[in-house]
Design goal:
The chain folds into two domains: 174 residues, no CATH class; 247 residues, Vaccinia Virus protein VP39 (Rossmann fold), CATH 3.40.50. The protein is built from 19 helices and eleven strands. Helix 13 links the parallel strand 8 and strand 9. The two termini are 24 Å apart.
C-alpha cells in the first residue's frame, strides 16, 4: 500500500510534465518486465537476508518490498497517468475518473479471488509471476510504439531467467542437500530434501518433519518421541487422533508399535498429504484414516472419541489461534474418552518473554483439564527456546519421579528415552497471572508469539545438532 501510494503521487505528478501516452507505456512495460524477472531477482536478493541477524517481522517487510515494491510503485502510476490521458475535457473528468477507479477495484477483486482459489492451488508461484508479467505485456501491446525497447527488455529477462535457475539449484544443492521435491500449495511452500541419510520436509522454509531413509518408521525429531507419552499414560488406548500430519512421523510410529490401535490424522493441506504419501512412506493401512480438513472443523463434525489426541499443528512463526483457545480445548475434551490424554507440541521457553505463548496456552488448557504437566525437550534452561510438550488429562497424572520410573518400565518408552525428557520437567509452578486466558473472542496469539519469532530456532532443538536452513 505504501508503494502504491507513492506511485500515485510521484508518477501522477510526472504525468503533468511529460507525454502521458509515453509514460503509460513505459510504466506498464517496466512493471511487466520486473514481474517477469521477480522469481530470479527475489532468489538472488532474498538469499542475502541473514535470518540470524534479521528479525522475522523485519524480514517479512523487507522481502515484501523486494518482491512487490517496485512493480506496485510503477503500476500505482497507471491510474493518474491514464486519467491525465483520457480527461481532455474537464466536463468528463468525473465520469472518466469514476470508470478508472471502478475498473481498478474490479480488477483487484477478480485478481484476489483468481489468485487465491485458482492460480495458487494449480500453479507454482513463479509461474504465476510469469503469467502476470506476460498478461501485462499483452495489455500494453497496442500502446507500444518502440518495439526495440521491448525487445531489449525481453532479452534482459531471457538472460536473467537461466541465471536465476542456476543460482537456485546451486543454492539448494549446497545448503540443504539433495532436492527431492519443491512445490506450492494453497497453504505452504513445500520442499523435500535428503541430507545425511535423513529426508526432511520444510513447510514455508521451516523444518517440520524428518524420516530416516534406513528406517522410515523411526522417530527422528526428539519432540515426536514424547507423543508416546499418550499410550504410556493411557495403556489400553485403542484410538489416537493426530491434528497435523506433516511427514506423518508420529502416525507411522504408532502404526508400527501399537498394533491394535486405530490412527486418525487430520491435515488441512492436501498437498502435504500427497507429499507424505509420495516421499515419506505413508502406506494405505486399514488402521490409518486421513482426513483433509481443518482440525477444529473435523472435531466439530465427527462423533468419534479418542484415548489420545495429539496436537502438532503449530510452528515457530505461525499458530492458528482457533486451535489454542478455551473453546477449542473444550471441544477436544468432548472427544476424549474417560481419563483420555491430550498432548500438545509448542515452540517457546519456560521463562522470560519467549515463554508467554506457552504459559498462556498452559493457563488455557488448565482451565479445561484437571491436570497439565510441562515437558521441555531440549533443555531445562528457563530462557531456552525449544520444543515444549504439554500433557493434559482429567485423570490423575504421575509426578515427575513416577513418570521417570514408568517410562523405564515400558518397552516403547524406554527405547525412546522418555525418562530423560521427564527428567527435564520443571519442579516449580509456572506463573500464569501475567498472561491472558485464550478464548475465541480474545486470543492475541501473534503478540504472544512475537518474542519467539524474533529468536533463532535451529535444527539443534530437534536433533541435537546444528543444521542449515533453506536458501532464498
Amino acid at each position: 500500500m505504501t508503494c502504491l501510494s507513492l506511485g500515485y503521487a510521484a508518477l501522477g505528478a510526472l504525468a503533468d510534465r511529460t507525454s502521458p501516452r509515453k509514460l503509460l507505456e513505459a510504466l506498464i512495460v517496466s512493471a511487466s518486465i520486473y514481474v517477469l524477472a521477480t522469481p530470479t531477482l527475489s532468489a538472488m536478493l532474498l538469499s542475502r537476508l541473514d535470518p540470524s541477524i534479521i528479525d522475522d517481522r523485519v524480514g517479512v517487510v523487507l522481502s515484501s518490498l523486494i518482491v512487490l515494491g517496485p512493480s506496485t510503485f510503477l503500476l500505482g502510476g497507471v491510474t493518474p497517468v491514464a486519467l491525465k490521458l483520457r480527461a481532455s475535457e474537464l466536463a468528463s473528468l468525473g465520469k472518466v475518473s469514476g470508470n478508472l477507479y471502478a475498473y481498478s477495484t474490479l480488477g483487484s477483486i477478480i485478481g484476489t479471488f483468481l489468485t487465491t482459489f485458482v492460480l495458487i492451488p494449480m500453479l507454482d508461484v513463479n509461474m504465476i509471476f510469469y503469467i502476470s508479467g506476460i498478461a501485462l505485456l499483452i495489455v500494453v501491446a497496442p500502446l507500444i510504439k518502440s518495439w526495440k525497447m521491448l525487445a531489449a527488455l525481453m532479452l534482459v529477462v531471457v538472460f536473467l531467467y537461466p541465471q536465476g535457475v542456476t543460482f537456485y539449484l546451486t543454492c539448494s544443492s549446497s545448503l540443504i542437500g539433495t532436492l527431492q521435491y519443491r512445490g506450492e500449495s494453497l497453504y505452504n511452500n513445500i520442499v523435500v530434501v535428503d541430507r545425511g541419510g535423513i529426508r526432511y520436509l520444510y513447510l514455508n522454509g521451516l523444518l517440520h518433519s524428518g524420516m530416516s531413509l534406513a528406517d522410515p518408521y523411526a522417530l527422528v525429531f526428539d519432540y515426536t518421541k514424547l507423543f508416546a507419552a499418550g499410550p504410556l499414560l493411557a495403556p489400553n488406548a485403542s484410538r489416537t487422533l493426530f491434528i497435523g500430519g506433516g511427514g506423518f512421523s508420529g502416525p507411522k510410529f504408532f502404526l508400527k508399535n501399537y498394533r491394535s490401535m486405530i490412527i486418525d490424522v487430520v491435515e488441512i493441506d492436501p498437498a502435504v498429504v500427497d507429499v507424505a504419501r509420495d516421499y515419506f512412506e505413508v502406506r494405505d493401512d486399514p488402521r490409518l484414516n486421513v482426513f483433509v480438513e481443518d482440525g477444529r472443523r473435523y472435531l466439530t463434525r465427527t462423533s468419534e472419541v479418542y484415548d489420545v489426541i495429539i496436537v502438532d499443528a503449530y510452528s515457530k512463526n505461525y499458530i492458528p489461534f482457533h486451535l489454542m483457545t478455551l473453546e477449542f480445548y473444550a471441544l477436544v475434551k468432548s472427544h476424549l474418552k474417560r481419563n483420555g490424554i491430550v498432548i500438545l507440541n509448542i515452540i517457546a521457553s519456560l521463562e522470560g518473554p519467549t515463554s508467554d505463548i506457552m504459559r498462556a496456552e498452559y493457563k488455557t488448557i488448565r482451565s479445561i483439564f484437571r491436570e497439565v504437566i510441562v515437558v521441555p525437550v531440549f533443555s531445562s534452561s528457563g530462557g531456552q527456546v525449544q520444543n515444549i510438550i504439554l500433557i493434559a488429562s482429567d485423570a490423575s497424572l504421575p509426578l515427575k519421579d513416577e513418570l521417570i520410573d514408568l517410562a523405564r518400565m515400558d518397552n516403547v518408552s524406554s527405547s525412546l528415552g522418555l525418562d530423560r525428557f521427564f527428567g527435564l520437567m520443571p519442579t516449580y509452578e509456572l506463573p500464569i497471572m501475567d498472561v491472558p486466558l485464550l478464548h475465541d473472542a480474545y486470543a492475541p496469539v501473534e503478540n504472544l508469539l512475537n518474542p519467539v519469532t524474533g529468536t533463532r530456532l535451529g535444527k539443534e532443538y530437534y536433533l541435537g545438532v546444528t543444521g542449515p536452513s533453506i536458501c532464498g
